[in-house]
Amino acid sequence: MSWNTFGRVLRFTTWGESHGPALGAVLDGCPPGLALTTRDIQPYLDARRPGQSKYTTQRQEPDQVKILSGVFDGQDGKQRTTGTPISLLIENTDQRSKDYSEVAKAYRPGHADYAYDRKYGFRDYRGGGRSSARETAARVAAGAVARLIIPEVTITAYVCEIGGDAIDREAMNLDEIGNNPFFCPDAWAAKRWEGLVDEARKSGSSLGAVVECVATGVPAGWGAPVYAKLDADIAAGMMSINAVKGVEIGDGFGAARLSGEQNADPMRPAAEGANTGDPQFLANHAGGTAGGISTGQPVVCRVAFKPTSSILTPVETIDAQGNATEIRTKGRHDPCVGIRGAPVVEAMMALVLADHKLLDRAQVGER
Amino acid sequence: MSWNTFGRVLRFTTWGESHGPALGAVLDGCPPGLALTTRDIQPYLDARRPGQSKYTTQRQEPDQVKILSGVFDGQDGKQRTTGTPISLLIENTDQRSKDYSEVAKAYRPGHADYAYDRKYGFRDYRGGGRSSARETAARVAAGAVARLIIPEVTITAYVCEIGGDAIDREAMNLDEIGNNPFFCPDAWAAKRWEGLVDEARKSGSSLGAVVECVATGVPAGWGAPVYAKLDADIAAGMMSINAVKGVEIGDGFGAARLSGEQNADPMRPAAEGANTGDPQFLANHAGGTAGGISTGQPVVCRVAFKPTSSILTPVETIDAQGNATEIRTKGRHDPCVGIRGAPVVEAMMALVLADHKLLDRAQVGER
Amino acid sequence: MSWNTFGRVLRFTTWGESHGPALGAVLDGCPPGLALTTRDIQPYLDARRPGQSKYTTQRQEPDQVKILSGVFDGQDGKQRTTGTPISLLIENTDQRSKDYSEVAKAYRPGHADYAYDRKYGFRDYRGGGRSSARETAARVAAGAVARLIIPEVTITAYVCEIGGDAIDREAMNLDEIGNNPFFCPDAWAAKRWEGLVDEARKSGSSLGAVVECVATGVPAGWGAPVYAKLDADIAAGMMSINAVKGVEIGDGFGAARLSGEQNADPMRPAAEGANTGDPQFLANHAGGTAGGISTGQPVVCRVAFKPTSSILTPVETIDAQGNATEIRTKGRHDPCVGIRGAPVVEAMMALVLADHKLLDRAQVGER
Amino acid sequence: MSWNTFGRVLRFTTWGESHGPALGAVLDGCPPGLALTTRDIQPYLDARRPGQSKYTTQRQEPDQVKILSGVFDGQDGKQRTTGTPISLLIENTDQRSKDYSEVAKAYRPGHADYAYDRKYGFRDYRGGGRSSARETAARVAAGAVARLIIPEVTITAYVCEIGGDAIDREAMNLDEIGNNPFFCPDAWAAKRWEGLVDEARKSGSSLGAVVECVATGVPAGWGAPVYAKLDADIAAGMMSINAVKGVEIGDGFGAARLSGEQNADPMRPAAEGANTGDPQFLANHAGGTAGGISTGQPVVCRVAFKPTSSILTPVETIDAQGNATEIRTKGRHDPCVGIRGAPVVEAMMALVLADHKLLDRAQVGER
């Protein structure tokens, strides 16, 4: 599989740097006949878009997506996918490359600066180039198209923890997610986070976060053991997101502390008058997969975002010549990258699930 | 990409079921000229082999590996890899299929039974067939060959937690790993675990565990952003191991609770008289990768194993006809699958690193 | 994609050398539930098997296939594919490695000897190792399974030309193919070839041949533009067969000599009372594909086999030290490798078509 | 491998339709540090560009390429590849969609119209959409970058036959290729072709052609048996080009008519005072590959282009409703698509060779 391509039969390739003229994605393998216009994509890009609150970077990017290929007017006049590659383009407009003069000279610890220089011999230091979180805009655009392939599935990601301050599971209400700038399902936690994140922002510090993602409506049978397990692909997709350092399915690391009895997900026959013959599960410690295949329960994963390394506190480092120096990262940065990670996690989940729907159809046929 | 193949240029395919005649791996893309005999592979299979202590399943499998292709006598008379596919075969000898009569009738909650039936329409219920942990023997064999490709790297995996009882980092000593049946680097923890695991075994219960893996000697520059990030491939490889529910790189979920200052890995110029020009890092919260590329620091990951669902306590479930029933899983099972997970985690790490060494050589050339 | 794997969703990997203990194939992505025993595979291996007439190599190989994984007894007691990798093994029994002492010393012009040494630094010179036509036995075995995936398709390959002596299209009768040792559909040509090939055999010379393959019953819609075109995959598969130097679809090179009018394949509405709504084509210059997608007409390709380089006439060459020498290739060889190429071409066609049936189902759904 | 992506480690993805806003390619896996500007690409696009003589379509397309990503200023101020994906964009400017009103109604025999409709349910009928030869502009752009990866190789493609009228091998002179509108190395043939092609153009007919491609400077050792054979990848790449119906390596189908003695490529020690230790080959029937690996001789292939199906003579066909009708293809078309095929064949050869240089480096290391 190539470096910048993800997926097995529904494959997307992203390209572009933070401060280049544009970035984009090419989505290949999309079924034909799906109604698709930029209106199906833009809302997801808007959700991820920076500069919408004081809690994210102030870089102003309209992130308007263009569809350059793969669609045509169907007989009903609606613009539909043709089954050919869908090329999505997003222009960069608000680059401030001068902000990066210092970054060009020395390595920001925790950033990809040093690693890119060591690998490639030099680097596009403007905003981290390819290692910038701006790359995730292309995933969000591709993910919006992927959602059209799996209308039976509902995907919701939200921030469940910032800087160690977690939401209250009792107080959780998915309707709250849109009511605060943190994609937070707990109104009280959202209130607390305002102070927490604002303080980090003012002090030029940064905070880590945990994003949880739940996909409901996934039928039993998606996932292909043993190296294309549904959860293995989710893990790869999530770990490829900037600043992500951990991925859990279901109880994840918590399950390692349970006994077999505690971790069991007992099953019962379908409920009386249920509209499906699917059995009932009395628990979902597994997070919706068994043996790498979906069970019909909600697919649940949690993703850990580290605090961004872009902080104002001077940190010991070296310059390109290997001499000792210090660096304070100015420029515009997210005090908590995990917040805007929520729409990205949703997009990756959509891309993995849509890919596996098609993979399953290839091997087993229509469900 | 295919279902049962892992890797990008160094690719291996595993095949075989728990109770079939044999299982194996085909490793493709291995460089030519490496001295290879079964003696390079067998010790790793022996480490993973069941039935060696009362803390693992009593199934007796010699797990003798055969090399069926890809090697030939070099001019020095040594058997060497030829650059063609290396076919590794391991025969199954101690199947007791009768143990599975009950499993054939009803689904074991937490096992792949139900998911496989829903996906494929029927399943090989003997020992879980393809979903059995026996598949990991093939990975361990392939991993042993992968190690020969990266002699500069030392990989060590150990169990750092069982049933919530963690090792003492102060008391940690890698030399201890071989002195106890738990791959435990803390002699005192190993003692405690004897009672813990034995109790679970006697009561027919099971325990989860956490395996940590450290790879030293990885040069800066391995890993290919953005979807072939070194850590993304590690996450995929680890999550594809049976019973794994979580993967962390470096501080992982812990990093989500740190501030940018706390999480920083400051750099200093190479130490006086160091034999490399590599800078010193004052910390390794990142776990050896930045932007998906190795930094030259040790690559560190942690893997969460759930408790096996094979327990003697009756659990509510349904039979193939969807009727309510109960199941107690008899047969021979590991009270803590995470223990034997350590050699498997080591093998997956070796396979991912060897693949990325070759990938990096393809794009950037010799280091 | 890896070196020794072919296919996109139905993928097979072959391994093994001519004089190793065995060779085999692992077929991944096969749909579950197909009735499969060795009896479905053996007849195709027997057709390809050497030593059956004086017109092929006298090496005696039973080529008995073993199925090591991927099958299990269904509820009807029939052994069926489970959807997991199918591992096929064929043991080598009649190696005569001593025959190759001379080959070890010098390069046979036209063989892979020199190229393998230059690439890998050394080679398994016994029977050409991995470059031996024995590798094709594994393809034939995998191809037999692929046929089960496309029961709607009938594939027939035959030799249409040996040493420049072509069949008479008027006299062509597919029922004749099994009545002669040349897979020849023209009884008179078969008679002529007896003398032609026998003479080459006696004089230690060799002859080239052309194999034609026709697949009927392929529905319109298989093939995925633009780099997974059905004809592009056929070309890759055929050109990967030993000794193949050319591939044509439909009129192929002949089409380059036609005008647009001559090359047209006019269409007409479905015939009265036809059992399908498919249109009638008044010609098939295109060989059943347009834009890389099947049209519903027979898929037709022709494959050119060079004469084997293993001849008794001394040829100028160099030894491993680069010194001038001469070589006469003794040992047992096919005077015309193209003859046994027919079953291999059939197998590759089956593998490509089955792969594209599943690929099409992934993107477009059931037809 | 996905539908619209080609290559193994150097992978490119093309997107775009003939009458969409633009088309492009994303090239992934390119080594870092190569000096690259649009000036390295434009000349190859210009060579392929339509409307330059009366012998090609009159569609006027500047085919100006833009580099949207993957390059940055190196320390020497030169724009260099960074090792990240290179996104190349070419805008469509001279669409005349109204020309296609008739095509929308009925299927052009020999075109992809019918096949696309049957596969995808509907199609972008404007200029054939994705099945248009305009897609090859993206390959030519990607191929220009690939050439920078293999500076040691010289690739030359030329038309050696049009409408059955072949060049005279004796009169062949590569310097002539640029002196005529046919990429013809034989000045006399070029003269003859003027009349031939002009007549076809005037009468609204079309002609087939054969393009030959020679790559010199390819070192021994490129190509990865058995399914990534250098010649197998060349065959796939060439057959994926619009209108191509056949591919030959070396003597190709001619070799099928030779005896082993005639087809031999005898070897001799390196010539006195040769600057390489490479042996001399006394012939090159094999076309530079043995066992799928380059031998160090020139790599030679021939590609057959059918006459375009776009002719003014009415042809029997059916409309979308399946009713009988006739079609005359108006609009602007190449009387001989094979002519402009030459730069495309060169580009595909460059892409395959560059990919295999990197693949070989991955497995075997620097040569």
TrEMBL record, chains A, B, C, D:
Pfam families on file: Chorismate_synt
Gene3D superfamilies: Chorismate synthase AroC (3.60.150.10)
Pathway note: Metabolic intermediate biosynthesis; chorismate biosynthesis; chorismate from D-erythrose 4-phosphate and phosphoenolpyruvate: step 7/7
GO biological process: amino acid biosynthetic process; aromatic amino acid family biosynthetic process; chorismate biosynthetic process
GO cellular component, one term: cytosol
Binding site for NADP(+): 48, 54
Cofactor binding annotation: Reduced FMN (FMNH(2)).
Keyword NADP part of the UniProt annotation: yes
Taxonomy, superkingdom: Bacteria
Reaction(s) catalysed (UniProt annotation): 5-O-(1-carboxyvinyl)-3-phosphoshikimate = chorismate + phosphate
Keywords of this entry: Amino-acid biosynthesis, Aromatic amino acid biosynthesis, FAD, Flavoprotein, FMN, Lyase, NADP
Enzyme nomenclature, EC number: 4.2.3.5
SUPFAM superfamilies per the UniProt record, alphabetical: Chorismate synthase, AroC
Residues annotated to bind FMN: 130-132, 242-243, 291, 306-310, 332
PROSITE patterns per the UniProt record, alphabetical: CHORISMATE_SYNTHASE_1, CHORISMATE_SYNTHASE_2, CHORISMATE_SYNTHASE_3
Function field: This reaction introduces a second double bond into the aromatic ring system.
Quaternary context: Homotetramer.
UniProt cross-references to PANTHER family, sorted A to Z: CHORISMATE SYNTHASE
Protein name: Chorismate synthase
Origin species: Qipengyuania oceanensis
Annotated gene: aroC
